[in-house]
Amino acid sequence: MDLGRYGEDAALAAARARGARLLARNWRTRRGELDLVLDEGGVVVFVEVKARRGRSHGTGLQAVTPKKQRRLLRAAHAFLSATARCPDATPCRFDVAEVDGDGAVRWVEGAFTG
Q1: Which H or E element spans position 33?
Q2: What is the spatial distance between Cα 66 and Cα 52, in angstroms, rounded to a whole number?
Q3: Distances 70 to 3, 10, 17, 31, 102 between C-alpha atoms, Å
């Protein structure tokens, strides 16, 4: 299994343990890709999963640069529109799930805002 899939599986298991419901996985549009889209108590949570074998390239949170954030925002807006949710009225949050080589997940809620 590749590192990305491994990280997404670990993050999804952690999300479900938190009571989240999966809405979409690897949702793609020409504007970008959303790793996980969850429903947490009526809040749509867009999760960028960053799996790392080590810290030599920085943390997963550091990898979500302003440019990456803009792409995620555009993809999230497209997701909300495609699923008949009003982008301006739907409560949303952007999280980052950092997964290490041992499968431990560090969840960063509200990692950035849109």
Answers
A1: strand 32-40
A2: 20
A3: 24, 25, 29, 10, 30
| Count of domains for the chain | 1
Output the six-digit token pair for 71: 């792409």
Q: For 22-41, what is each residue's pLDDT tens digit?
A: 999 999 999 899 999 999 99
pTM for this one? 0.91
Owning domain of residue 83:
3-112
Where residue 100 sits, what CATH number does that domain have? Answer: 3.40.1350.10
Cα angle 106, 112, 114 (rounded to 5 degrees) comes to: 145
Alpha carbon separation from 38 to 18, 44, 45, 55, 59 (Å, rounded): 11, 6, 5, 27, 23
83-106, pLDDT tens digit by residue?
A: 977 767 789 999 999 998 777 899
Closest by CA to 71, choosing from 91, 46, 43, is 46
